[in-house]
Amino acid sequence: MFPADLKYTKDHEWLKPEGDGTALVGITHYAQDALGDVVFVDLPEVGASFGGGEEFGTVESVKTVSELNMPAAGDVLEVNAALADHPEAVNEDPYGKGWMVKIKLTGAFSGLLDAQAYEALVSAESH
Amino acid sequence: MSTTASELMKTPLNEAHRALGAKMVDFGGWDMPVQYPGGIIAEHEAVRTRAGLFDVSHMGEIRVKGPGALALVEYLTPNAVAKLAIGQIHYTAFLYENGTFVDDLLVYREGEQEFLLVVNAGNSDKDFAWVQQHAPAYDCTVVNESPVTGQIALQGPLSLSILQPLTRTLLAPIGYYFFTHGEVAGIKCLISRTGYTGEDGFELYCAAGDTERIWNAVLQAGKPQGLVPAGLGCRNTLRLECKMALYGHEIDDSIHALEAGLGWIVKLDKGAFIGRDALVAAKSAPAPRKLVGFKTLEKRDIARDHMPVVQDGKQIGFVTSGAPSPTCGINLGLAYVPTELAKIGGRIQIEIRGRDVDAEIIPTPFYKRTK
User: Fold this and answer.
1) Third-level CATH fold of A7-108
2) pTM of the model
């Protein structure tokens, strides 16, 4: 539920640094569970630049819609095109097949939570 | 959130929902299941193709009984109560003097002078006060039975075949919007052929303390036929596909019955009722706005409740409900728009997070079951 190699935001996105200055971004298990069945993920164009915390897209479920915010500043290198036909991957595999964008990190990232701190945040929110 | 789970009201099935792994939400002050682990789409499809079981114990029940009961209910509601046979039900409303909605409700005729009024959970206290406020002029008693009543709704094409083995009451002869009293799984209940999903089905009213037994018995009995517990999430998508109004969305205290497309529950020739004068006046001029069904044209464009309908940068209406439709596979919604734009095939624009997107007005209901 809380992979140790990821960094987390308070808004329930995750960032996975790949060690080469790039990182994958998605939403957490907790976020997909709160949204319910995901039916559409609106992602940015490749090449778009975002600051840390900036909105880069939206995720629509049957019952609601949620903004996607960048965990760290970066340029979009790749978007997960498979989500166009299989948005349910966000529910089924939020840390794997449900990834959303790959970014080139353009600044140092700070203020993100480690797995332990994020787990504490989530358990506080669900009580 | 301002309320915590401990402050929310609970139905008799609260523990049962948690044991089934339901995700619970605050629904009008009630701690209710929005979905079970299968998810909203799977539950929606189960109701359309097999059956789903809903906890609707949060709904309010008000019993009006006595020599003045018929006259009171006639005065409080626009539909023709005198035309109801004993054992028959109709959809109606409580209206304010200006024709807008206190609430919408079902009226069950239990006897010549006995009625059960089934109202929305969130309006239950307001409704009871409303009835009580007008009751003194009539010779009848008004009792709020909500706290002692449980209610479950079995909905879907297999409802009858699931329920029949549990009761000696013959279900097939019960017509749509009729009810009877009987026993299900040995538990006394009111068996009503009604629902809020557009499918065949039964709503069972029982003593609050019997709700869990009847719920478990029906769930067990239906399992081999694919019955699943179903939450409020799919209840909303199911009712939206059938254009059934939801208080706080299509109807409220700022919208009158004719604008809402509910002229069919308004019987102006039946005699006096609260709201009649306003509706007579409204009928003499064309309504300035109308409720329409629409679909957005792009997969990414999902309209949601309260989003503005716009024209040339100005707001001209609003979305009352919107969601991706699991049955139709497109993004649907209902909206109030100026009457001159309310034409099938017409285009409107909806502002979705700062973008004006195209939508087409299409016929409603969006879904209709094949009998």
Assistant:
1) OB fold (Dihydrolipoamide Acetyltransferase, E2P) (2.40.50)
2) 0.94
